Automatic annotation (TrEMBL), chain A:
It comes from Wenxinia marina DSM 24838. The gene is potA. This is Spermidine/putrescine import ATP-binding protein PotA. It is an enzyme of class 7 (translocase). Belongs to the ABC transporter superfamily. Spermidine/putrescine importer (TC 3.A.1.11.1) family. PANTHER family: SPERMIDINE/PUTRESCINE IMPORT ATP-BINDING PROTEIN POTA, SPERMIDINE_PUTRESCINE IMPORT ATP-BINDING PROTEIN POTA.
From TrEMBL, chain B:
GO terms for biological process: transmembrane transport. One of its GO terms (cellular component) is plasma membrane. CDD domains: TM_PBP2. The keyword Membrane applies. InterPro entries: Bact_Polyamine_Transport (IPR051789), MetI-like (IPR000515), MetI-like_sf (IPR035906). This is Spermidine/putrescine transport system permease protein PotC.
Length: 362, 265
């Protein structure tokens, strides 16, 4: 691995008695699109603000680009921030907003004006310079905030839920634009979000935070397929959680799964580690399959009764009750040609695969 | 019905004030109808009265000082209230607003006791200023709260993030945005101080303020029309200042792009 651009070492942060960050260790590579994901109040904003220099850490070390950030104030850090509220200066024009960070830049006026124009163009606001900033729409404000932060060519761009104030359509469009922008400028982005889908779509790597700690840090696919704990599994996507019992560790793990039976899984399927004894076993809805009339499979099969059906157009979501499984299993099925939609109460077979099980440390 | 009451109320409120200019221009030394003809004599007498000039000067000095100090304190309190959070914030802010409902006579008497008996100080314009700051600060805070509450605290941070120091972030971002509130607060504190009587009456030393001087004139019936003339000028001045203050307050709200929620006019 190349030298990390940001290196955090057991960062702790107290607000009075409240322990907001509980030992954060983190390395972020140059050029990475990194996301901090977690439920409300888990400390994502706090962590971002300590990196920006708005909050002092209570203990721990922080290095950005090899430089110790202790006692380096926010205005001297090689970071810039896009605030959740965008914090656009309402009494200035769009160009004055974007050029605000160049006030101390010794370059001649004309050059600075050109830089502003380029920054505006980069975010798709060419020709908006003379407009009053307070009259912009939400999406435009966000672009101004981006241009204003990027014009200083920071080493790291920090974004605190930059898309949460936008409507769904705008949000999806901006997600794509942000990814494109990040690729083209090559600046490291750290994005805070509580939207797991957004994090999965946009990031190279994601740190999932709970109560001031990082629960798991991995690329989106690993995070989705191999969550290391029950809380990560439940926070990211939908996951059926079944009680299980590990009988053997070592290479290949034997686990008894309630309702499904005994299964052999690889050690990679227990990313949180294995301990013999009671455990939780996860299986994603899309890795389960309803077997319709006449369909056969080489996969393992259990029988159940349809408990609920939600038709979604392209997909149908079933809840299927299986003997021995405490909660009905969520199963999502693509509505392929010729596939019926089953009624509630129908007996059906469910196919599943040992390879899609995840053993979750408690 | 309601409309009738409102009209009656307005007459009750403004009729006495309407009498001021009427008698100020009336050519007769007795305040009574029928009117005696038009004169500007009482106004020219104002010009030549040096005791009055002294009183006006005192009042202006006190009012300007009060406006400045009350507004400075108001800025600090409103900014703390809007941007900082500290234990007991609500309670402290409540106490700061208390003088708004405290009877002025109580403020006056207790300050008199503290200044004379406890501290053993001589009364002067400064004792009046201290008391006026006390009663004007809540107004100032009320006005400035509005200005600061509409500010996004992230704006100063954004300015710092873009390389400015704490002070220049305040100067470049916060100050221009709350400036209308500051102007409005200065004008209202100035107006309140200028015509305040009870406290000034208790706390002025040897130099009376204008309201105290006017009160003194009332003992001489012949001087009444002069008082009327002075009163006319004061009413006109107050209206002008309050209008300007309100104009700035509204402009401030418009600039921050928020809805109007009350105010003084
Ligand atoms: N200035 C502060 N003083 C005291 N407590 C604070 C302060 N800032 C944050 N906290 C507390 O720290 C915890 C983490 O806050 P933070 O804002 O980092 O959460 P978050 O993960 O960003 O949540 P959200 O998704 O709601 O924005 C919260 O419980 C919050 O109440
Ligand atoms: Mg947050």
């Amino acid at each position: 691995m190349t030298r990390p651009l940001i290196h955090l070492e057991s960062i702790h942060k107290y607000y009075g008695d409240y322990h907001a960050l509980r030992g954060i260790d983190l390395d972020i590579r140059p050029g990475e699109f990194f996301s901090l994901l977690g439920p409300s109040g888990c400390g994502k904003t706090t962590l971002l603000r300590t990196i920006a220099g708005f909050e002092d850490v209570s203990s721990g070390n922080m290095f950005i680009d090899g430089r110790d950030m202790k006692r380096v104030p926010a205005n001297q850090r090689p970071t810039n921030m896009v605030f959740q509220s965008y914090a656009i200066f309402p009494h200035l024009t769009v160009a004055e907003n974007v050029g605000f960070g160049l006030r101390r830049d010794p370059r001649p006026k004309a050059e600075k004006a050109k830089a502003v124009e380029e920054a505006l163009e980069m975010v798709g606001l060419r020709g908006y310079g003379k407009r009053a900033a307070h009259a912009l729409s939400g999406g435009q404000r966000q672009r101004v905030a981006l241009a204003r932060a990027l014009i200083l060519k920071p080493k790291v761009l920090l974004l605190d839920e930059p898309l949460s104030a936008l409507d769904k359509k705008m949000r999806e469009q901006m997600q794509v634009e942000l990814i494109r922008l990040q690729r083209s400028v090559g600046i490291t982005f750290i994005l805070v979000t509580h939207d797991q889908e957004e994090a999965l779509v946009m990031s190279d790597r994601i740190a999932v935070m709970f109560e001031g700690e990082i629960g798991q840090m991995a690329d989106p696919e690993t995070l989705y397929r191999r969550p290391n704990s029950r809380r990560v599994a439940e926070f990211i996507g939908k996951m059926n959680i079944l009680p299980g019992h590990v009988t053997e560790g070592g290479p290949g793990v034997t686990v008894d799964v309630a309702g499904l039976g005994r299964a052999e899984v690889a050690t990679e399927q227990a990313p949180g580690g294995v301990v013999a004894g009671d455990t939780a076993v996860g299986i994603r809805p899309e890795t389960l399959a309803i077997l319709f009339e006449g369909e056969e499979t080489t996969r393992r099969v259990v029988e159940g009764v349809v408990d609920e059906v939600v038709y979604y157009g392209d997909m149908t979501y079933y809840d299927v009750r299986v003997d021995g499984v405490p909660e009905p299993l969520n199963i999502s099925m693509k509505n392929l040609i010729g596939r019926p939609v089953l009624d509630v109460g129908t007996r059906t077979r469910v196919a599943w695969d040992e390879r899609s099980l995840v053993v979750l440390a408690r | 019905m309601l409309r009738g009451y409102a009209v009656l109320y307005l007459i009750f409120l403004y009729a006495p004030i309407a009498l001021l200019p009427i008698f100020a221009f009336n050519d007769g030394s007795i305040i009574a109808f029928p009117l005696q003809g038009f004169t500007t004599r009482w106004f020219s007498e104002l010009w030549t009265n040096s005791a009055l000039h002294n009183a006006v000067q005192n009042s202006l000095f006190i009012a300007v000082m009060t406006a400045v100090f009350a507004t400075l304190l108001g800025i600090c309190a409103a900014r703390a209230g809007a941007m900082a959070s500290f234990p007991g914030k609500q309670g402290i802010l409540g106490f700061v607003m208390l003088p708004l409902v405290l009877p002025e006579i109580i403020v006056a008497v207790s300050l008199l006791i503290v200044l004379r008996q406890v501290l053993g100080l001589q009364l002067s314009n400064w004792s009046v200023i201290a008391a006026h700051v006390l009663i004007c600060t809540p107004f100032s805070i009320a006005i400035l709260n509005g200005a600061f509450q509409n500010l996004d605290p992230a704006m100063e941070e954004a300015a710092m993030d873009l390389g400015e120091s704490r002070w220049s972030a305040f100067r470049l971002i916060t100050l221009p945005l709350v400036m209308p509130g500051i102007v409005s607060s200065l004008l209202i504190s100035f107006t309140i101080s200028l015509d305040e009587f009870i406290i000034a009456f208790f706390l002025t030393g040897t130099n009376p303020t204008m309201p105290v001087y006017i009160w003194g004139l009332l003992r001489f019936p012949g001087q009444l029309p002069v008082v009327m003339a002075l009163g006319t000028i004061l009413v006109a001045l107050s209206i002008i200042l309050l209008t300007i203050a309100e104009y700035y307050r509204r402009r401030g709200l418009a600039r921050a792009g928020v809805a109007d929620t009350g105010g003084f006019l």
